[in-house]
Design goal:
single chain; 280 residues; alpha+beta; two-stranded antiparallel sheet; 6 helices; 10 strands; elongated
Length: 280
Amino acid sequence: MNTRTITQLSLIVLSLTTAIAPAHSSRQTFPTQAMVAQSGGYLLAQSGGGVNLDALPTGFHFFRDISDDQNYLILEKRGNLVVGYGYKYQTDLSYCYRGTAKGNFVTDAASAKPIVTSLREAWEFAENRNINLNNYQKIPLENIQSNIDFQQRLYECRRLLAEAPSSAVNAWTDFFFYRLYPQMQGEKLQPSQTQLQQEWVAIRRAIADKIRWTPRDCEQPPESNGYDVVNYNPNEVADAVFYARHPELNGRKIRPGETNLAREWSGIQRRLPEFVCDNP
């Protein structure tokens, strides 16, 4: 599993204290496993039980976790691709995932969930996961509260877990580059400016996989189109620029006696913002 802790994003806390909740009480009676066997498969059960995603038609589906009746899942299936929005009833906990349907599992899934720290809201992203829906039971879609726009939630999940367009990555690269070179604001790099081009490329590589669309309203580069830098760390951007300037170091750490190099790195780091849009 490739997990990245990210400031301000993922298994997405979309301000849901009671946001998406069943229309009926959590004490509502649901069919037991024995009743499922008698009724012909309310759980869309396989031999091992649980949800057989392959048997689901294209469209929206609503599920309850039979091992914890506070956990619910809204899923959209298109062919063998699924996007899911899960939440815990009467809490702020929620998450998104996207992957491929295969039996009881969502395979090769990307997911996002919130982490709350004493300092700020943070996010954890994971990729290449297999999500087991063995304990989930299908219940009527109308059990979702009528005032909840679950299609909008799933739309936000799709955008949250989608790869950022190049235009957004480039906009954020420019943002950091011009913080280092404010006198060049708005200027395009010329072919002869090879060192600056290398630094720009290094910044882009450092942030490319940290740019995600978010539903938050905050100041961003106009060309970013709602995409933010998540899990931003100014030290990582400073490293990228520093080693682009000093390829002879081959990425090694600055040694105690290399005061000029240490001073140069600190000068780069000080020009970068401590936080960006999604890292208040």
